[in-house]
Amino acid sequence: MAEPISSPPTAPATTTARAYGLLGLALLILGFAPLLVRYARAASGPVIAAYRMTGAWLVITPWVLHRLRQGERLRWGRPVGWALLGGACFGLDLALWSTGVTVGNATTPTLMVNTSPVWVGLATRFLWREPLPRRFWPAVGLMLVGAALVLTRGQLSALAWDQGAWLGLVAALFFSGYQLAAQRARTQVPTVWAFWLTTAGAMAVLWPWVWLARLPWRGFDGPTWAALAALAVVVQSGGWLLIQEVQGHLPAAIIAPVLLGQPVLTAGLAAWLLGERLSRWQWVGAGLVLFSIYLVVMPTPRPAARQGRMNNSREQ
Fold first, then answer.
1. Is 297 strand, coil or helix?
2. What per-residue confidence (pLDDT) applies to 223?
3. How far is 27 from 269, CA to CA, in rounded Å?
4. Does some domain include residue 3?
5. Going by C-beta distance under 8 Å and a sequence separation of 6 or more, which residues neighbour residue 137?
6. The pLDDT of residue 132
7. pLDDT in the model for residue 232
8. How far apart, in whole angstroms, are the C-alpha atoms of residue 304 and residue 283?
9. Which helix (H) or strand (E) covers residue 28, if one does?
10. What are the φ/ψ torsions at residue 115 (nearest 5 degrees)?
11. Of 22, 136, 165, 168, most Cβ neighbours within 10 A?
């Protein structure tokens, strides 16, 4: 039987609380990513992703070398393969999504990528045969509706099933693969090593993509280089490094839905920093997403606790 990969070992309550805190901080950092991409418009999507991963790999490499000098060694085996596979999936996700945005509109591919909790949930339930909370699927459904309202500003007619939609859907499958593979790697590979391997795996697919497609990757202006540096140092080395840490303590079926809060945070940051006004429907969508995240992360009462409450009610 296939070995489950979506659930890390059971962690103490304090560790779980810390993991949720780190996940929230990571989500806030990721909210800046689309805003930074705007300033890197001179570069194509795959090029932005390639520089983003390369910069993050360069940031983390001195840390890895320091650990090597201290005598720490990485055992090469299946967990390392999971980390590299996860990185390759992440790289393909970024490249496919950015390509979908260029051939269609930005809304439809982005919404399709946000269906990843569905695929993570299906893999968790049917491939790895792990149970999911009863409220998982209703919460994911509400999240998708809320994300659609935020991304389309309530104009659902902006969605179109075109080539961009297909690319976004395939990107969602690869992003789900990244989350599941990275989860498995983190059960045995420390955070720093897992992040280093993941970025290396992404670079291994992104740079060949750029060169085979003959995309321009040099000669950008100052604002574009600054945005690329911020994406690498702040978003990837900050936000995604935190997520890599969290993947060792929380299941992918929890992390994937929570990451759907990114469009909400991005909309809020755009309203605050860029003066963009949110429509009434965007506020409704944001509320649905936040409520759904609460449903996903809210602890499920244990059977013993529920039985205890029932007994107390009978005694009264």
1. helix
2. 92
3. 12
4. no
5. 121
6. 83
7. 95
8. 39
9. helix 13-30
10. -85, 5
11. 168
Cβ–Cβ < 8 Å for 278, 263: no
* Phi and psi torsions of 100, nearest 5°: -60, -35
Would 266 be classed as within a structural domain?
no
DSSP class of residue 250? S
- Amino acid making up residue 107: T
Contact criterion met (CB below 8 Å) for 185 and 194:
yes
Q: Please count the other Cβ atoms lying within 10 Å of the Cβ belonging to residue 103.
A: 12
Nearest residue to 263 (alpha-carbon basis) of 60, 106, 54, 92: 106
Q: How far apart are CA 246 and CA 20, in angstroms?
A: 8
Q: Which pLDDT does position 38 carry in this prediction?
A: 79
Structure tokens at 300: 């499920």
Return the axis-axis angle of helices 191-212 and 45-69, rounded to nearest 10°.
150
Q: Give the pLDDT score at 315.
A: 44
Rounded to whole angstroms, how far apart are CA atoms 128 and 312? 38
> Is residue 149, in this structure, part of any structural domain at all?
no
Q: How many domains does the chain have?
A: 1
The residues near 49 (Cβ < 8 Å, ≥ 6 apart) are 91, 94, 95, 98, 202, 206
In-domain check, residue 73: yes
Provide the domain limits for residue 209. Answer: 16-133+160-249
Q: What is the pLDDT of residue 124?
A: 85
Cβ contact 152:158 at 8 Å? yes
Count of beta carbons in the 10 Å neighbourhood of residue 307: 11
Token code pair at residue 133 = 């909370």
> Average pLDDT per run of 10 along the chain, which is 316 residues long?
43 78 92 84 90 96 93 85 95 88 70 86 84 86 86 68 83 93 88 94 96 94 94 94 90 87 82 79 86 79 47 44
So what's the pLDDT on residue 97? 86
- Rounded to whole angstroms, what are the CA distances from 149 to 106, 133, 176, 197, 304? 14, 25, 22, 36, 39
pLDDT at position 246: 92
